[in-house]
Design goal:
Length: 386
């Protein structure tokens, strides 16, 4: 292991490079890349890496970037790309196609506000618009998680019980451009962790049909297979966690990450970097005698329904902080979490930091204090953070 002072963008690129080299005895590595702020640093570094059996292809659009990844992947190569915001929107057709083809592509998605009007700061709406695309979605809290999760994503995606693509999501600028000491493993350890990819349906000497016309019943069967693969993710992820800990000596986060939840009366649920701010507000509330707790959703797809239901059992007041907005509904995380709380629980949605406003401990404390005083849930509220 070596410690490097790097941004989360660079952490993802270096992790992808290590994964690429680990497949040198397999069918190598391929990537299609196109720049968009704030993920450009990632692919710039990736383009400058020496990968002895791999190609990074610079293309003219995000749609083509995913198409190139799909081509490499269907040929049996390990594949990675990165995008953000409107780039993800332009890529959307092929995002769905990659999942329907059951291709284990890993993509680093730097969460950024969709435009217009144009905004380059953090908002989870870009990846959450793709929540039904068939991709596994993991939301990181810090730079080390970005590096570790990128490596783990290849192992999870390529498992034959899964064979689904994965988005490794990180908050724009808060992580993507922030330099933090990050442990990067030696290539020999990554080789031990990541076996060469052997894609069972890759194009080879025997002819295969890829993307032909399905009749209704055939499409139904393909979707059922995808559901089965998603249902396998939790078990396979536990195995990946165990292997990661054994080889690298560091734990991967669970699908949900509780904080001071055991005796909590009031709980705040969040994703990404907001969770660290929630912990600070929980500690401050505890010092005042308020039995508060925090719950971070690390794996949003597949949705950890059973784990959330168990964690929120007996909790009568739950606040959900979204960094996204679905007009006409409210926060997307809130909309899903409210379905797993106990009957009669007060579940209030809060929308904070859309468009990149700083969500600070004082803002979360204000949310927490309001939640404690609430007698009934209301429509999701936008919290002005400036």
């Amino acid at each position: 292991m070596t410690q490097e002072l790097i941004s989360a963008n660079h952490a993802a690129a270096l992790a992808a490079t290590l994964a690429a080299r680990a497949n040198r005895t397999g069918r190598g590595f391929g990537s299609g890349v196109y720049p968009i702020t704030p993920q450009t640093e990632c692919i710039e570094l990736l383009c400058n890496q020496e990968i002895e059996k791999g190609h990074v292809v610079r293309v003219e659009s995000e749609h083509s970037a995913m198409a190139v990844c799909m081509g490499f992947s269907v040929g049996g190569a390990r594949s990675f790309t990165a995008s953000s915001s409107n780039g993800l929107a332009f890529m959307a057709e092929n995002v769905f196609a990659a999942a329907f083809y059951r291709l284990p592509i890993v993509m680093m998605a730097v969460n950024r506000t969709l435009g217009p009007p144009w905004n380059i700061w953090v908002d989870h709406g870009d990846t959450l618009m793709l929540r039904d695309s068939g991709w596994i979605q993991l939301y990181c809290e810090n730079n080390q998680e970005v590096a570790d999760t990128t490596l783990a994503a290849f192992r999870l995606a390529e498992d034959r019980r899964v064979l689904l693509p994965i988005m490794v999501c990180q908050d724009a600028f808060i992580l993507s451009h922030t330099m933090v000491l990050t442990e990067m493993p030696a290539q020999a350890l990554v080789d031990e962790f990541l076996p060469p990819l052997d894609l069972p349906h890759r194009l080879a000497d025997r002819p295969r049909v890829i993307g032909g016309l399905d009749l209704p019943h055939e499409t139904e069967m393909h979707r059922l297979q995808a559901i089965g693969a998603m249902n396998n993710v939790f078990e396979v992820y536990r195995e990946v966690q165990a292997s990661f800990l054994q080889i690298f000596g560091r734990a991967l986060p669970d699908p949900i990450v509780p904080y001071r939840m055991d005796d909590a009366d009031v709980v705040l649920v969040s994703m990404g970097t907001t969770a660290s701010t929630v912990r600070a507000a929980v500690d401050e509330a505890r010092a005042r005698g308020v039995r508060a707790g925090g719950l971070r959703v690390n794996m949003f797809r597949p949705f950890p329904e059973d784990l959330l239901r168990a964690a929120l059992a007996g909790k009568k007041k739950v606040g959900v902080i979204d960094r996204d907005l679905c007009p006409g509904l409210g926060g997307i995380l809130w909309a899903e979490v409210r379905g797993v709380t106990e009957p009669g629980a007060l579940v209030q949605g809060y929308i904070a930091g859309i468009g990149g406003g700083d969500v600070r401990p004082a803002h979360v404390t204000r949310i927490l204090n309001e939640l404690v005083a609430l007698e009934r849930a209301d429509k999701p509220r936008i919290v002005e953070v400036g």
